[in-house]
User: Which sequence fits this backbone?
């Protein structure tokens, strides 16, 4: 099943790039859904099906990931986007072509850095750990480089997908770690609801997170 | 059995408080009952350990356990119990007043009080899980739960400022917590490389096999852990959410966050340091030393010339977190004393700051004058609190900081001393400018606050002074150098 694993990992890397390159929020949400489904399929792809049916914990983790990351969270995000009525990211801090270039560089860098480490036996694929690093970096980059609160949440989801990938790729026998990842998803769920209910509806007429800069130690402003 | 009860208690009361509906008095009363029970139960556990009373049956495999010799765990539990008691009584007194105030402020919605108080109780429950967790997985989950539960507390008064603070808190802390999860995985991988499979990420099994952990992966893991949990702890340069959250949160929440949550995050870092293989330990200590010193420096820079007194207190928290980290890196002898008294004084100070805010209606230092003339008791508390937090004798922090400076040698000690002196000057300057002067021409006219609100900080400050004097009498510090 090694080739299938690598196809999935490569597809995850591709979704990273399409997400960074697109300005429409719905496009980003569809991409994060695809990525979530791929993350959910990853544990199934790496198990050895010839040795019998995989353990219950793997099936559970995989299906929970599929449901939460592939369906529930994208659906919630899409609901918020429709409710708020924003369609696209306008004037991000880093332009789209520059973003793609940066993501290529970050991905190359992750491959370079992880090649210096010696990884344990039983790693699912040679590209698993660097792909996880690259996804984490891309997520963090999106949080920094985008203006809208929703895009930042998508970036956070991607960051979290990267961590889940790392977990899957190096330690399948740690059942609990998988559960932790799922718990973090619930956290993200509440996180999105937090934006939907408090942040957008009431106080602000916009959802530009860079406008959230009234607090600080600036000397001129009154308090 | 008892530790489990200690965890269940706040959650149980949270449910009860939620179900109170609009009966706000019942909700407030239940919160105080919960904190009193929590306080008694915590101290019963200590007595049970001391005098072999029934109720403690620690099992090696349990996820939650009270370990008698684990001083950091005991300290965090004691601090949580004390600060929870203080803040619940303070919330009991302040919430009816806020309700009256609310009608005067436009564009602001107040969260229903039963929800606020229920979340407060659940937040304390999640911190108890952090303190009692015997498992890195559970520790992480509980730390995440503290973020989740404390974020809604910040927006008790929902306005643009508090929503901004909550957004920053959520985003920065959740990324930090994500990094900590990554660090936990890397740490597990470092034991995997050594061929050890630790089932369920149990503390004690890691501690038994710590020397065989892979050093390079453990180093990487520790960097992520320090950055991740350090974000939650408020260490510079990951502290940016902290001044916003503390200054925008209602004062009872600021007290709870600054008094207890930071200690829980420190506990998480300490747990990972405890399993460091001895080859990596010096590296971890150097890293903590550097981060601690940087935190003190950043705090000193931002406290000097600070225009907002709640932000000043927040940066003082950053400073003390740096000190705690340096303590831990050098020697943990007076560490627990520092943690306990810092939490008590800081919680009292945030309550006093809340009273000042209520009286003058502003957090700006420049607009607060003549406190001594308006409310002598409040001013005396403010003066005492600021002097105590800066480590002026007879503050117990004087002893701990003196020990730290003597322990850290000439160069490091000198740098810390200079930074602490800068913080002292800046804070006392702000304190003097707020208490002295005349307040006759202030618009709007300062409203006197009820003396009930000063009772809790007064009790805390008096307790700190008495405990500090007794601690300095029994300490053996002068004999050590």
Assistant:
């Amino acid at each position: 099943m090694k080739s299938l694993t690598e196809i999935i990992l490569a597809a995850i890397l591709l979704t990273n790039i399409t997400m960074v390159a697109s300005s429409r929020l719905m496009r980003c949400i569809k991409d994060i859904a695809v990525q979530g489904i791929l993350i959910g399929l990853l544990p199934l792809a790496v198990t050895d099906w010839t040795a019998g049916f995989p353990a219950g914990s793997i099936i559970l983790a995989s299906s929970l990931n599929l449901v939460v990351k592939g369906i529930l969270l994208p659906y919630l995000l899409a609901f918020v986007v429709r409710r708020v009525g924003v369609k696209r990211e306008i004037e991000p801090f880093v332009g789209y072509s520059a973003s793609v270039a940066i993501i290529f560089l970050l991905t190359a860098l992750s491959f370079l850095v992880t090649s210096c480490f010696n990884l344990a036996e039983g790693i699912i694929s040679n590209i698993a750990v660097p792909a996880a690093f690259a996804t984490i970096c891309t997520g963090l980059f999106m949080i920094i480089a985008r203006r809208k609160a929703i895009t930042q949440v998508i970036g956070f989801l991607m960051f979290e997908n990267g961590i889940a990938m790392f977990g899957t790729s190096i330690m399948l026998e740690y059942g609990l770690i998988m559960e932790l990842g799922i718990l973090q998803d619930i956290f993200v769920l509440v996180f999105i609801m937090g934006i939907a209910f408090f942040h957008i509806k009431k106080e602000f007429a916009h959802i530009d997170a860079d406008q959230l800069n009234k607090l600080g130690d600036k000397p001129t402003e009154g308090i | 059995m008892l530790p489990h009860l200690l965890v269940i208690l706040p959650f149980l009361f949270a449910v009860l408080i939620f179900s109170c509906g609009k009966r706000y008095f019942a909700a407030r009363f239940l919160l105080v009952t919960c904190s009193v029970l929590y306080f008694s139960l915590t101290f019963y556990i200590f007595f049970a350990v001391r005098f072999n009373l029934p109720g403690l049956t620690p099992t090696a495999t349990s996820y939650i356990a009270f370990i008698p010799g684990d001083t950091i765990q005991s300290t965090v539990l004691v601090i949580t119990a004390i600060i929870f008691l203080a803040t619940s009584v303070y919330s009991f007194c302040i919430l009816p007043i806020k309700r009256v105030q609310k009608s005067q402020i436009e564009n602001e919605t107040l969260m229903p009080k039963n929800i606020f108080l229920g979340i407060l109780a659940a937040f304390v429950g999640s911190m108890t899980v952090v303190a009692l967790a015997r498992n890195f997985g559970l520790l992480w989950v509980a730390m995440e739960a503290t973020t989740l539960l404390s974020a809604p507390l910040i927006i008790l008064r929902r306005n643009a400022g508090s929503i901004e603070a909550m957004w920053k808190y959520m985003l920065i802390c959740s990324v930090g917590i994500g990094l900590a999860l990554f660090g936990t995985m890397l740490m597990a991988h470092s034991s995997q490389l050594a061929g050890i499979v630790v089932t369920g990420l149990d503390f004690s099994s890691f501690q038994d096999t710590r020397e065989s952990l892979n050093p390079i992966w453990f180093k990487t893991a520790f960097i992520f852990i320090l950055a991740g949990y350090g974000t939650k702890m408020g260490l510079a340069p990951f502290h940016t959410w902290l001044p916003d959250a503390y200054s925008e949160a209602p004062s009872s929440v600021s007290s709870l966050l600054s008094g207890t949550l930071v200690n829980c995050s420190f506990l998480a870092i300490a747990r990972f340091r405890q399993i460091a293989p001895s080859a990596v330990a010096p590296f971890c200590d150097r890293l903590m030393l550097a981060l601690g010193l940087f935190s003190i420096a950043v705090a000193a820079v931002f406290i000097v010339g600070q225009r907002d007194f709640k932000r000043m207190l927040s940066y003082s928290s950053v400073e003390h977190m740096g000190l705690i980290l340096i303590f831990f890196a050098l020697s943990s002898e007076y560490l627990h004393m520092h943690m306990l008294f810092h939490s008590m004084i800081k919680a009292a100070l945030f309550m006093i700051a809340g009273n000042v805010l209520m009286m003058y209606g502003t957090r700006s230092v420049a607009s607060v004058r003549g406190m001594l003339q308006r409310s002598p008791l409040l001013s005396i508390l403010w003066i005492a609190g600021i002097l105590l937090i800066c480590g002026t004798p007879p503050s117990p922090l004087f002893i701990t900081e003196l020990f730290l400076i003597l322990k850290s040698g000439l160069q490091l000690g000198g740098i810390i001393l200079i930074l602490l002196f800068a913080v002292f000057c800046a804070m006392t300057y702000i304190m003097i400018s707020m208490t002295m002067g005349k307040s006759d021409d202030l618009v709007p006219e300062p409203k006197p606050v009820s003396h009930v609100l000063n009772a809790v900080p007064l009790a805390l400050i008096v307790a700190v002074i008495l405990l500090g004097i007794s601690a300095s009498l029994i300490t053996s510090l002068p004999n050590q150098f």
